[in-house]
Specification:
It comes from Roseateles saccharophilus. By secondary structure, this protein is mainly alpha-helical. Helix content is about 50%, strand content about 0%.
């Protein structure tokens, strides 16, 4: 008999959080928290690291044109390449980085 553990585990953070978010501060703050949580869960469902996704989105958002906003949605987002990342110097070969990991 198949169980529903996967479904229960996927909603557990929301169920536990309900009690914590009861006094979020205001209606507007609750809506903002809901938007961020939706982005985080959507990023996870699309196989992205939520931290990397949100960091990239928040860095690119101020300079992006309105017509290009759709590329930041989790299902359209592409992680930045390693050579464009400030943490990865362009002079270090990718094989050296992979071997160090």
């Amino acid at each position: 008999m198949p169980g529903n553990n996967a479904a229960e585990n996927s909603i557990r953070p929301l169920a536990v959080g309900r009690r914590n978010w009861l006094f979020v501060g205001s209606q507007q703050a609750g809506e903002r928290a809901g938007n961020i949580l939706s982005l985080i869960e959507s990023a996870k469902l699309n196989g992205h690291d939520p931290w990397a996704y949100l960091k990239d989105v928040f860095e690119r958002l101020p300079t992006l044109k309105d017509r290009d906003l759709a590329q930041l949605l989790p299902h359209n987002w592409k992680p930045p390449t390693a050579s464009a990342s400030p943490e990865t110097p362009a002079s270090v070969p990718a094989t050296a980085i992979a071997q160090a990991a």
